[in-house]
């Protein structure tokens, strides 16, 4: 962990543990560092190669049968910065080893199935880092707040999520769940900035204001979901996100740390390196037939 930027293990600081209380998390705080925006930009760029190398090792070892993969779940209120995380942290990775899924409102067909039906096909394959921009947690967040499903069904879904995540973890999926936590004041500022810039009008959704009016209900829904589904094989991290630079560097470091714990390694070749070198050197003078 770079000492010039992180003064403490940010993953340990932000990982949800016993007695966690979302109300005690200050969205404007920057746990684990006393740096500023400029230093954050430098840290993000400086650690990108470290993240790419871990990704490449993860992908490479899958070519010889390793089943390990990583699933990163991003959840947040609107305008909390999920898109910025995707662009500034994950867009720097090799596309062949990254699978991004942005879940929207269920389609009519999806509504005819259990809520996890549309999630299953997007679980990353061996060697891949999967990224969920929203996820199956929408079905216990907005569904709970808006009462789109009865209370007993919401209760069933908590158990179904725990079982689903346990099952895929046993199959080699490392799960990291991240809530980007912003304040209602910061969200208002970001929504207003979208209205101030014609080039960002496409990002603005009037429905976001409707959900914003239910802020206390959403915070309660997040609290319950985190409490009911936090597990050693599928931990939750709550990242203060009022400072975009902090949220991006914190998520990057959490992902790097999780990959380091997975310890991907360059695979041992199943061929004789010296013999293959000799074959190539012996074929250097090859020419097309005249």
List the helices and strands and how they pair.
Blueprint (H helix, E strand, L loop, with lengths): L9 H5 L22 H10 L1 H15 L6 E8 L5 H9 L7 E5 L5 H4 L17 E5 L4 H8 L5 H20 L2 E9 L2 H13 L9 H7 L2 H15 L6 E5 L3 H19 L10 H10 L8
Parallel strand pairs: 1-3, 1-4, 2-3, 4-5
Task: Provide an overview of this structure.
- The structure is a single chain.
- Helix content is 47%, strand content 11%.
- Helix 2 (37-46) runs parallel beside helix 11 and helix 4 (82-90) packs across helix 11 (244-262).
- It has helices spanning 10-14, 37-46, 48-62, 82-90, 108-111, 138-145, 151-170, 184-196, 206-212, 215-229, 244-262, 273-282, and strands at residues 69-76, 98-102, 129-133, 173-181, 236-240.
- The chain starts with 9 loop residues before the first helix and ends in an 8-residue tail after the last helix.
- The longest helix has 20 residues, at 151-170.
- It has 290 residues and is an alpha/beta fold.
- The model has no long low-confidence stretch (mean pLDDT 94).
- Strands 2-3-1-4-5 form a 5-stranded parallel sheet, sandwiched between helices.
- The chain is globular.
Please tally the helical runs, counting DSSP H or I stretches of 4 or more residues.
12
Range of helix content = 40-55%
Largest sheet: 5 strands, parallel
Distance between the termini: 59 Å
Assign an overall shape.
Answer: globular
The overall strand count is 5
Q: Please identify the structural class as seen in this structure.
A: alpha/beta
Task: Note the run of SSEs as H and E.
Answer: HHHEHEHEHHEHHHEHH
**What integer is the average pLDDT?**
94
Q: Which radius of gyration do the C-alpha atoms yield?
A: 22 Å
For the biggest β-sheet, the strand order reads 2-3-1-4-5
Strand content is 5-15%
Low-confidence stretches: none
